[in-house]
Hints:
Helix content: under 10%
Structural class: mainly beta
Number of strands: 11
Number of helices: 0
Largest sheet: 7 strands, mixed
Radius of gyration: 14 Å
Shape: globular
Amino acid sequence: HVQLVESGGGSVRAGGSLRLSCAASGYTYSCLSMGWFRQAPGKEREGVATIDSDGSTTYADSVKGRFTISRDNARVTLILQMNNLKPEDTASYYCAAVPTALPWYFLLRRDIYEYWGQGTQVTVSS
Length: 126
């Protein structure tokens, strides 16, 4: 059983940076694909960045070159480093995990994830 808790959200001016963390507990899986998703008011939840059990990453086109996803050495914390933030990045950000290895082209789809955190709010002002 996996539990996910996000932290690090807040308010920042356009061009600023934030670092989101997702702490995973109850982790007993050797293969765990994880990702960050976000949802703005009135919009669908969308994939932002993913990382599989081998460390391969995938990014939404809208955040390429600005966001970086990574895992800590113990593989129990998921990180999203967000640089050069824009007002359109404003959303609730969610950590997700699925205990299986999946092809990279599936990982930005929200329907394949089994576990979800409760979200952390990111607000970017202009």
